[in-house]
Write a structure and sequence with these properties.
30 strands; 4 helices; EGF-like domain-containing protein; four-stranded antiparallel beta sheet; mainly beta; elongated
């Protein structure tokens, strides 16, 4: 009878050797230690693991941005296996920064690599840090402020009311392409928006299609003059705006917006290979004195809540661009 009781005690001790019998989420091994199944953790395997992401801080000694649970910017809820992110971070693994005020409903949250044309794609935080890309007419870190109208300062006199003169140069780098296209991004200084041109055939030795492509964007209202200098080494376009300055930038990209059915937003499709071999297009503005395009014409204050100008005494107009009395 005593022998049987001893065996029962030994059996019970063996069964209870691992903490909580590894909670049914692992197996009991040597030294009474649990080896947890995938997705579970803890001495008794009772806790769930949370998603991992590149650590914002304090990764490993070798790599401070190695993968870490909740990206080291949140607390893992072991009961559910979900991350509770610290303020300013979001995502299943707290792997993204949040956008200020959710862009106030007037913009789109984008990764830093999408907001900057010069950000290296191999940086560790290209798909982690986010910022607001404001809708046309809005500005600010959270897109909460409205843009006010721009105009020419009535207290200054410009020798010419022509706008900017832009030069678009394409160097063929010794190789003469059989077909090549460029796309230009044009910044509208008035409302802060960016529009893209249709493909521009750089082999067309004519200013007419080039001008039409620019005017079709709707940002450029009229062109005072344009020229094209075409040779086997490259092509140079120049165009001068009739209106006072209204462009914040003109820049080239050798990619076009994806138009294939099922294409995901913001995905880009490359242009033909020989276009890439043609060389980059360099865009520059020719320095010359021109009319200002200043918010409220430098003669009023901008109300960011309404996007309207409060003109100083002696000035009026939507952009305070007119003078009523001599001062």
């Amino acid at each position: 009878m005593r022998t049987i009781a001893a065996l029962v005690v030994l059996a019970a001790s063996a069964m209870a050797s691992c903490p909580n019998l590894c909670s049914g989420n692992g197996r009991c091994g040597a030294d009474d230690k649990c080896t947890c199944y995938r997705g579970y953790t803890g001495t008794d395997c009772s806790g769930r693991k949370c998603p991992y992401g590149k650590a914002w801080v304090e990764g490993s000694a070798e790599d401070p941005h190695s993968f870490a649970e909740c990206s080291n910017k949140g607390v893992c809820e072991r009961a559910s296996g979900m991350c509770s992110c610290y303020e300013g971070y979001e995502g299943t693994a707290c792997h993204r920064s949040t956008c200020p005020g959710a862009c106030s409903g007037h913009g789109v949250c984008r990764y830093i690599e999408e907001l900057s044309t010069n950000y290296a794609e191999f940086n560790w935080d290209t798909t982690k840090i986010q910022g607001c890309d404001c809708d046309a007419g809005f500005t600010g870190l959270d897109c909460a402020s409205r843009l006010c109208p721009i105009g020419d300062d009535p207290m200054t006199v410009a020798p010419s009311l022509n706008g900017q003169r832009w030069t678009v140069s394409v160097d063929f780098h010794g190789g003469f392409p059989t077909t090549a296209e460029i796309h230009l991004d044009i910044g509208n200084l008035e409302d802060g928006s960016t529009v893209s041109t249709r493909p521009i055939n750089i082999l067309a030795n004519s200013t007419a299609p080039f001008e039409k492509t620019l005017l079709d964007t709707g940002v450029i209202k009229s062109i005072a003059s344009s020229t094209v200098d075409y040779s086997e080494s490259g092509v140079v376009y120049t165009f001068t705006l009739q209106d006072p300055l209204r462009l914040s930038f003109v820049r080239n990209r050798w990619e076009s917006d994806c138009t294939v059915a099922g294409c995901q937003p913001r995905k880009l499709a490359p242009v033909p290979k020989d276009a890439l071999e043609a060389g980059a297009a360099f865009v520059s503005e020719e320095p010359h004195v021109k009319a200002e395009s200043a918010r409220c014409s430098n003669r009023g204050t901008c109300d960011p809540a309404s996007g309207t100008c409060g003109c100083y005494e002696g000035f009026y107009g939507r952009a305070c661009q007119y003078q009523t009395v001599l001062i």
